[in-house]
Amino acid sequence: MVIVGGGFAGIQACRALAQSEVRITLIDKRNFNLFQPLLYQVATGLVASGDIATPLRELVGKQPNVQILLGEVTQLIPAKHQIVFNGKTFSYDHLVLATGSGSSFFGKDD
Ligand SMILES: Cc1cc2nc3c(=O)[nH]c(=O)nc-3n(C[C@H](O)[C@H](O)[C@H](O)COP(=O)(O)OP(=O)(O)OC[C@H]3O[C@@H](n4cnc5c(N)ncnc54)[C@H](O)[C@@H]3O)c2cc1C
Helix or strand or coil: residue 29? Predict the structure, then answer.
């Protein structure tokens, strides 16, 4: 199984499958989980940025059925069960997309 995204959802999915007979490849473009709810506190200087960034290996690296890869998934090819990751094609049996969401300022970026 390939899980794209090591945020709340991706980490939870990894942990939920800890006892399953499934090999998991967790892919994220960052090597850390960002605890977004405390971003405001970092921005206002109440919390250090390192305190809300936990390495993915620390969270699930010891789980025997998980390998963690760093890179950005840029293309999905569902018909072939493939993703394009770091410029290379990677096959999967099952795919979990846990890539979060983006912001929209409705064209008013300022
Ligand atoms: C400022 C702020 C405050 C918040 N406060 C709260 C709160 O108080 N309570 C609450 O419940 N929620 C809060 N939220 C919302 C909460 O943080 C999100 O709902 C949650 O983080 C979503 O988790 P996720 O796993 O879906 O996505 P994310 O945590 O965004 O994780 C997505 C992961 O996917 C990775 N990724 C994305 N695209 C790719 C790609 N193409 N290739 C490889 N990796 C990729 C990213 O690097 C990231 O690690 C807050 C959010 C913000 C921004």
Answer: coil
How many whole angstroms from 84 Cα to the centroid of ligand 1? 22
Q: Which CATH architecture has domain 2-97?
A: 3-Layer(bba) Sandwich (3.50)
Please tell me the distance from the alpha carbon of residue 23 to that of residue 2, in angstroms, as a whole number: 8
Give the mean pLDDT per block of 10 residues along the chain (110 residues): 98 97 97 97 97 97 97 97 95 98 89
Assigned token pair, 29: 């473009």
Beta strands in 20-103 (DSSP E): 24-28, 32-34, 53-55, 66-70, 73-77, 82-85, 88-91, 95-97
Domain ranges of the chain: 2-97
Pocket of ligand 1 (CB under 6 A): 4-10, 27-30, 36-37, 39-40, 72-73, 98-100
Predicted pLDDT of residue 103: 85
Distance CA 27, CA 10 (A): 9
